[in-house]
Amino acid sequence: xxxxxxxxxxxxxxxxxxxxxxxxxxxxxxxxxxxxxxxxxxxxxxxxxxxxxxxxxxxxxxxxxxxxxxxxxxxxxxxxxxxxxxxxxxxxxxxxxxxxxxxxxxxxxxxxxxxxxxxxxxxxxxxxxxxxxxxxxxxxxxxxxxxxxxxxxxxxxxxxxxxxxxxxxxxxxxxxxxxxxxxxxxxxxxxxxxxxxxxxxxxxxxxxxxxxxxxxxxxxxxxxxxxxxxxxxxxxxxxxxxxxxxxxxxxxxxxxxxxxxxxxxxxxxxxxxxxxxxxxxxxxxxxxxxxxxxxxxxxxxxxxxxxxxxxxxxxxxxxxxxx
Length: 323
Prior knowledge:
This protein is mainly α. Helices cover about 70% and strands about 0% of the residues. Helix 7 packs across helix 8 (about 160-170), helix 11 (about 205-215) runs antiparallel to helix 12 and helix 13 runs antiparallel to helix 14 (about 260-275). The longest helix is centred in the N-terminal third of the chain and has 32 residues, at about 35-65.
């Protein structure tokens, strides 16, 4: 009788404890913030890819149906590889088609592609001619692009006209022009800061990175770690390599933000995937030590090998970022 009673008590206790154990079980997808972030990112990117594929098919059908107004968007889809395999050649084809309909923004990008030889053989004289004509139409994007080519002596522009084009483009809110003005105002730190702040607020990722550095060092403004981190994170979310790596380091050090090894691991892995050699080396170490993640010897070896094969971190391209 006593044995039966004792068994009943044990069974009752087990039944009472079962829900508690179930509630303590980690939910989605693991008890690790870096894993959660990566999972959410993967789901978001998957949905973005599906949306881009549907949009590409719609644009292609519209252009084939004679709706030329969609040609520029179709060109951008090919140029960025959104919803379709990236193809500079097809991007140029449709950008030119859109430009021929009178789309000035498409004409600017056609000129950019000619100037840099993207999707078409480089043709600086034609690029200069396109920009010059658009400048006469008061197009601020063309002003900045013509300024860039003139600054490298690729287009003939009088010095006073060159400066006027840069000033006008900046005044009209062209973010890379504001960024350029900031760089040229290095001897006037406060003015340089104001230009960089305007460009950063227009979501120009190199400016967001540069502004973060200004807040970090107190160049042209007061030192502000929190604002430095905020702008660095904005640039990192726009996949700027150096910003991703710096964000990882600041999370690890707790600079301008609460220290977090899992979030440092998350951004280190993003930077590593984006080709940053130093991030690849650190990621290998984090996998080896279990810093911000679980120990994974296989991943540690994989990233150490990638880092050893990576001669240097590639420099990001910015010539198309004026849109």
